[in-house]
Specification:
Elements: E1 2-12, E2 15-24, E3 27-32, H1 36-39, E4 42-46, E5 51-52, E6 56-61, E7 66-67, E8 70-71, H2 76-85, E9 88-95, H3 103-114, E10 121-127, H4 133-144, E11 149-153, H5 163-176, E12 179-183, H6 187-199, H7 208-212, H8 215-232, E13 236-238, H9 244-247, E14 249-252, H10 263-272, E15 275-278, H11 280-290, H12 307-327, E16 333-339, E17 345-351, H13 358-365, H14 386-393, H15 401-407, E18 411-413, H16 420-424, E19 439-441, H17 455-467, H18 471-487
Parallel strand pairs: 1-4, 1-5, 6-9, 9-10, 10-11, 11-12, 12-13, 14-15, 18-19
Antiparallel strand pairs: 1-2, 2-3, 7-8, 16-17
Length: about 500
Amino acid sequence: MKKLLRGGFVVTPRGSRRADVLLDGEKIAQVGHISPAEAKSAEVTDVSGCYLFPGFIDAHTHFDLDVCNTTTADDFASGTRSAIRGGTTTIIDFACPNKGETLAYGLDLWHKKADGKCSCDYGFHMTIDDWNEGIEGELDDMFAAGITSFKMYLTYPAMMIGDGAVYSALKALKKRGGIAGVHCENAGVIDARIAELKAAGRAADVSAHPEARPDYLEAEAVARLLRIAEAADAPVVIVHLTNREALDEVYVDVPMDSGESFIPYLDEMESMGLTVHFRLPLLDRIEEACCDETSAARLSRSLGRCAGGNIVSIPIIAVVAIPLKLESPGPLFFKQKRVGRNGRYFYIHKLRSMYVDAEARKKELMAQNEMNGLMFKMEDDPRVTKVGKFIRRTSIDELPQFFDVVRGSMSLVGTRPPTLDEYRQYESHHKRRLSMKPGITGLWQVSGRSDIEDFEDVVKLDVQYIDNWSLWGDIKILFKTVWVVFAGRGAK
């Protein structure tokens, strides 16, 4: 019998709207207004005030999986009951034969675990933890059984295969129209770090787990997989991305002969300052069409750890600290979360030039903002102390940032990092400013600084600096900064 869900809000990728939904067996027969005549043949349920979502698909589950002498908490019975409860109507689990076992054995084992126990629809991916002629010979049977997606590991000794095997497997899957997802970590270095932590007596220390797996090792494995996939000329899915390091690179592999349809996406990524790697044949076709060369802007440009700046800063800070604290009791340093390169958060440090309640009072003053756009500047800001006006005019308040340079979160020259509130309002092209490490000084600071009243002009200056970066350019900006500071130009 047909079922009619009457009067709910149907949710789609384009939004939600009030509509009736007519179900015929397990299929959606109609969405929209269902006439009373059509409704007579259906069992009607009033769902007014409810949202009707399409059934979710969870494409990555591990039910009843034995690993590392443990078994995952949910089996197919409890896991799929929970899935249905949350609106997931299809799960795709991973059939995992052990090394030395056949793919057919693994698929049969997972059917025995799942068949007759599931409360929702289900399917399987197949794990490839061995690669040899026998495994490759089974691929056609897997495709015949409906298995078209596979998983491989670059880590875990019981499951990983080598780079050469990954390359061969990707080519074999591509030939058959399949695809592989890969778990990316650097197994060798991680195992070495684990051994070091165990030797230090930290085998049971939970905090040792992330120490053994720093973000940059995942990023290395992701980059390595992408190059292997490029060599195999095959698509690939990265099944886990857990940190920003691994997301820093955007890899684009467009199989079509013409790259013209991709140009709008490239323009968008270029406007955001993202590092993009192309298959070289495509790059040759579209480089002239849409992008200027900006690779120099992605070089590491730090001029060192700035020991001299810190030596000079310490006595100046010590002298200024006395009148600053006398006028306005509170912390000497102002610490604020900012957004740095590629959207990473970090803390910037300054000498406190405002009263301690400055951030709370900022909302009251927004109507007097003299900047057009996503920055706040105000002449005679009442939140600034008398000492604060002096250290701002002389840029002494910026001296603690030499220590941020030492910590590696900033550079001497770069773009100024936005606050979180400013960043959340950014449009795509504004994020181009974040494609370089933020600096204490930059082209904006020596081009007028607070005299510039339009945020878009700040962005233009930053993009100009990024696109035309050179070591000599940074040196000139440093010398200009000294002159601007002593001349008091543009400082408020």
